[in-house]
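Private note to self, pasted from the team thread so I don't lose it. Backbone tokens:
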């Protein structure tokens, strides 16, 4: 009974500590995904990844420096190694797959040439009729009616009936457009430096949200989200920032699980969990300190299997959802990290002045002050595991124990041993 009382007490205290820590630092490390990387460090020379698209055969197409690359999960193959039709040698900044299988490619400026190319059946076709785009393309899509939209040089272009024309009229006359997307209802959303514009007929645009926005996305409940140059992401109509972090949002993605992914230009990849508290959602981060090749994230894609693909300035990553989610993810980090940050640096300086080595300083100052918080976090994580234990213990058999039962047995044994050793020390 004494053991259970101590565990319950640790649970209550750690719960309060974890809530306080979360309030101080509204973020945690990204959990629940296995990251696979293709970077120069891993032996891949893919380079910067600016755009991603998946075709009907499951191949991943990558827009990168110097052209288009196809990835089959093991090998990167450039377009010119697959087909005879040559592509202009330029960085590819945007990709979009049409319903008929055509891959639309948007590239950097090409010395006056049209910067949108259609790849179809091994051929590369460029449409020059009308007023085509000649500047760097930052966004491409084909809408439900078959019209192709491209953002080039801050202007929104449209390809229909075999000819290009620009949409720099009316409300969009002075808007510097960055991206365009189509929602499930067929409405078009244009993110610009002057705000977010919407059109239902492809002709007349209306301003629906002010402020700089590079990209927009819509959640399952119809909430409009847009990138933010100061706080990474914001909700339409929200009087205050949705999150308490600073960052320059670059790309947005709502995945099939309802999570919101935010690609930033220098603060890594963020995930806002589905169902998180709207007042202060907890953000999970992936940065170059946790395996990401670069904190400058350029593009995001969810494939047909629910994997999240991430393109950065230094390579490509895939995030595969884990079948087994770690128990109490981030609890130890969110509990111990604020304690370490609160340690007065003068304590370390005094210890070093008295002749302590860096390892001695770490042991006598940092670890000694954070030891209690670490113990409380471990107790809280153990208590959280009991919930899963109760739900699955009836499935266990003596010869085939379930994983939570094994974890419970190991944790209980470790806690009992620690308490036993502590009582021995007090007795001596």
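Design output:
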């Amino acid at each position: 009974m004494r053991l259970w009382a101590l565990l319950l007490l640790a649970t209550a205290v750690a719960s309060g500590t974890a809530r306080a820590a979360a309030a101080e630092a509204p973020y945690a490390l990204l959990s629940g995904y296995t990251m696979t990387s293709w970077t120069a460090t891993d032996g891949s020379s893919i380079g910067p990844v600016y755009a991603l698209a998946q075709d009907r055969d499951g191949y991943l197409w990558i827009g990168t420096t110097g052209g288009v690359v196809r990835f089959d999960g093991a090998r990167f193959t450039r377009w010119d190694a697959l087909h005879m039709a040559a592509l202009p040698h330029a960085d590819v900044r945007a990709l979009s797959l049409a319903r008929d299988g055509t891959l639309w490619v948007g590239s950097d400026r090409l010395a006056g040439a049209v910067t949108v190319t259609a790849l179809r059946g091994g051929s590369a076709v460029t449409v020059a009729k009308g007023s085509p785009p000649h500047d760097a393309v930052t966004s491409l899509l084909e809408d439900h009616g078959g019209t192709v939209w491209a953002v080039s040089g801050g202007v929104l272009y449209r390809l229909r009936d075999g000819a290009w024309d620009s949409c720099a009229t009316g409300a969009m006359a002075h808007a510097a457009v960055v991206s365009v997307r189509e929602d499930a209802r067929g409405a078009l959303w244009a993110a610009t430096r002057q705000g977010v514009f919407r059109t239902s007929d492809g002709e007349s645009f209306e301003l629906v949200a002010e402020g700089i926005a590079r990209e927009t996305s819509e959640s399952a409940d119809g909430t409009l989200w847009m990138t933010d140059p100061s706080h990474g992401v914001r909700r339409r109509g929200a009087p205050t920032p949705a999150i308490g972090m600073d960052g320059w949002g670059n790309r947005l993605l709502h995945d099939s699980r309802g999570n919101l992914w935010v690609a930033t230009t220098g603060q890594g990849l963020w995930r806002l969990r589905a169902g998180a508290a709207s007042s202060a959602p907890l953000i999970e981060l992936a940065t170059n300190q946790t395996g990401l090749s670069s904190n400058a994230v350029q593009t995001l894609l969810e494939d047909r299997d629910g994997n999240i693909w991430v393109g950065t300035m230094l390579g490509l990553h895939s995030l595969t959802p884990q079948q087994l989610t770690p128990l109490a993810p981030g609890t130890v980090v969110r509990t111990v990290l604020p304690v370490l940050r609160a340690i007065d640096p003068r304590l370390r300086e005094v210890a070093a002045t008295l002749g302590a080595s860096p390892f001695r300083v770490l042991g006598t100052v940092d670890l000694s002050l954070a030891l209690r918080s670490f113990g409380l976090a471990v107790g809280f994580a153990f208590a959280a595991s009991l919930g899963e234990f109760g739900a699955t213990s009836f499935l266990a058999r003596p010869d085939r124990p379930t994983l939570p039962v094994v974890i419970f047995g190991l944790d209980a044994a470790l806690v009992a041993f620690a308490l036993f050793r502590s009582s021995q020390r007090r007795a001596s």
